Amino acid sequence: MMYAGLGRTSGLFAQGRSDIPRYTLWKIVHNVDHYAADNRKGTMLYTCSPRPGTHLPAARRAVRKTAGPVIDIHCHILSPAAVELVAQAGLTHDEPQVRFSNEATRAVNKAQAETVRPQLTSVERRLADMDKMGVDIQAISPAPPQYYYWTPPEVGRDVARLINDNIAATVAKHPDRLVGLGTVPMQAPEFAVAEMERLVRELGLRGVELCTNVAGAELSEEQFRPVFAKAEELGILIFLHPSGFTDGRRLAQHYFSNVIGNPLDSTVAVSHLIFAGVLDTYPGLKICVAHGGGFLPAYAGRMDHAHGARSDCRLCIEHKPSHYLKKMYFDTIVFEPGQLEYLVGTYGSDHILMGTDYPFDMGMYEPVQFVGDAKLTAADKAAILGGNAARLLKLKRQQPVSRSRPRLQPGTDR
Q: Is the pTM higher than 0.90?
């Protein structure tokens, strides 16, 4: 996903290489539409310099063999009031995606940010895009620049409340099409616990999105244990989503800050959660990791070997690391049907959830077709396309309202 530059405080051109010729930079910005060609792995929703008539692909209903709703677990929303609050505080945006990007990446990011803003803020545009993708329900979560873990605790608390209120208000406009995943100020765990309680009990949100680190601190640190304890108590889903790699000095070129940095940060975060015993301490946690879980699910054998070979790799856990990894959930944003088939074969179709990464350029916008193309059973596909998300988000079935298929409605059970 690309997201640097969504607010005035991002400072897109404050750092990075300046040795790229201006004409080359112009071509990068104004010709990025060449990357928007349709393909079976995913079609972009936009181009940074759109061609006339560009639009979303229509969903291919032939592969929709499931009777239940199609649910997108990975899609984002922007809260402009939060951007304004941070700006009024006189704070400068500080995220790895901004710090570790060269000028070419900053230029493309800035152009994209201007293009996707309507999709991040307009409910009507969101619903139209959902219909074209064949998505019935989105679980909307904050765009990663809006974690704001780098702000002072009081600002983080206030901005999280604004974002959660906006998500709840957006969901309330179309409760049959949208459910919400909120945010909490992780830089102040006591505030985070209180806000998690509020977003579930008062706002009715179905889970929380956490970044894969807290301004460089590992989620596995003792100071964050109360947050995981509260999530387990509430029985909510944690959607784990990165925002670049914390030490991305080698990732500034070719958009590696995202292409490599995002799955790498997820890999590091999940490894710490496993090896530090967080999943032993809180066995009831429900964690879904974005982008197919990062790199770890494809190479878990190495950490299992280390656990058996070295005493310093089993200080906090008794079981093999893969034992804990198999308790987690992963979205479908892996781009290759074979990789999706591997995830299903290794971790089970009941642990895979369909996602798009709407509305960013690293997303996949023929999600139903992508799952349909994989060599999986009809039951597997039905679970991935919506059944698993419905269970984890605690949605209950209701009769259709002006639609031809069964719908799901946010339930009142907790």
A: no
